[in-house]
From TrEMBL:
<protein>
    <submittedName>
        <fullName>Metallophos domain-containing protein</fullName>
    </submittedName>
</protein>
Length: 340
């Protein structure tokens, strides 16, 4: 999203560090004759066995631990401060405990099952947080956000719990006279397989994850998920997914891997964002890097669903005049994005 009052700024100043890095990448100046957007990702032979896939890939796939920024690090005038959380399950985001910043990222599972009253409560909670921009994606627990999940009729093959959940959700929607719960999110920018551009930075969000339960936004590994990852444009700056990529923050307490190998390959070979932020695998909380992209699993709850983890923050350098303009016009920008 661009506005006329930004166009007088020189290209170099307006792009900032990330923009220049992206331009270099997309022009093929990083020593790679194949442009990222020309790379075709193929289905891995062990797509359905992520632990085996990782055994094959780990020797050639760097995973380096990254120290998290201290939460009391002052917000700079020449950088956008991102504050990232995921998997809160309706836990109140206390304004006194959420670090200050310019953009709050919420990577799914902000409710227990997507009931209208949960979504409304979450939206009211967002209004108490002073971050000028809040960007939200759904997770597998936002059942009412997944139209295909809600439309799936009950059948004799359906699990009793699944049938009861769908019945309760549809009854709650009818009682609330709500047909589109996403419309209740008025205090944020909601992304679902699309992007928004803020401060000259491209931010893309998608809710899908490998099928492991009978909740929302579940797809089979392999081609169904790859079709979703292929929608993500190359060269974005910040990628929000609910799913974890294979090898980065996806190790479960069982010792098995749960990440998506096609998501990993899409990120490191084609999309190449500066930051990939996600949740879903609660015990995978933390940060890592492959030397190019920084991976952040920002799940607030642990494997026991206890909210023991803190938000993760990071900065991206931008021109201070552009930052000032976006902050000053934040309400107008959010309103315009949500109308488009």
């Amino acid at each position: 999203m661009h506005f006329d009052y930004f166009r007088k700024t020189s290209r170099r100043a307006s792009l900032g560090v990330i923009g220049l890095r992206r331009d270099s990448m997309l022009s093929g100046k990083e020593g790679n004759s194949i442009l990222p957007n020309e790379v075709v990702i193929k289905i891995h032979q062990y797509t359905d066995d992520p632990s085996m896939a990782w055994e094959m890939l780990k020797s050639t796939t760097p995973v380096r631990p990254v120290r998290q920024m201290k939460l009391d690090t002052p917000v700079r005038n020449d950088a956008v401060r991102f504050v990232s959380v995921a998997c809160t399950y309706g836990v109140f985001l206390d304004p006194k405990k959420i670090p200050p910043g310019d953009v709050l990222l919420i990577c799914g599972d902000f409710t227990s099952c997507g009931l209208p009253q949960e979504v409304k409560g979450f939206n009211d909670n967002l209004a108490l947080l002073k971050h000028p921009f809040k960007i939200v994606i759904a997770g597998n627990h936002e059942c009412t956000f997944d139209e295909s999940f809600m439309k799936m009729a009950a059948s004799r093959h359906m699990d009793v719990k699944e049938g009861a959940l769908k019945h309760a959700l549809n009854a709650a929607m009818a009682a609330s006279k709500i047909t589109n719960p996403k419309s209740l999110l008025t205090n944020c920018i909601y992304l679902q397989d699309n992007l928004v551009e803020l401060f000259g930075l491209k931010i893309y969000g998608t809710p899908w994850q490998p099928k492991n339960d009978k909740w929302a936004f579940n797809l089979n590994r392999g081609q169904p998920l790859l079709d979703k990852w292929n929608l993500i444009p190359s060269g974005i700056d910040v990628l929000l997914t609910h799913a974890a990529p294979l090898g980065h923050g996806d190790l479960m307490v069982t010792g098995n891997r749960a990440g998506c190998v096609e998501l990993l390959n899409s990120v490191v070979k084609r999309i190449r964002p500066a930051y990939h932020v996600y949740g879903h695998i609660h015990e995978g909380y933390g940060c890592s890097s492959d030397g190019y992209t920084k991976f952040i699993n920002c799940s607030i709850v642990n494997e026991n669903l206890e909210p023991t983890n803190t938000p993760v923050i990071f900065d991206i350098a931008v021109n201070h005049e552009i930052k000032s303009s976006f902050i000053r016009n934040a309400k107008k920008i959010v309103k315009k994005v949500n109308k488009s």
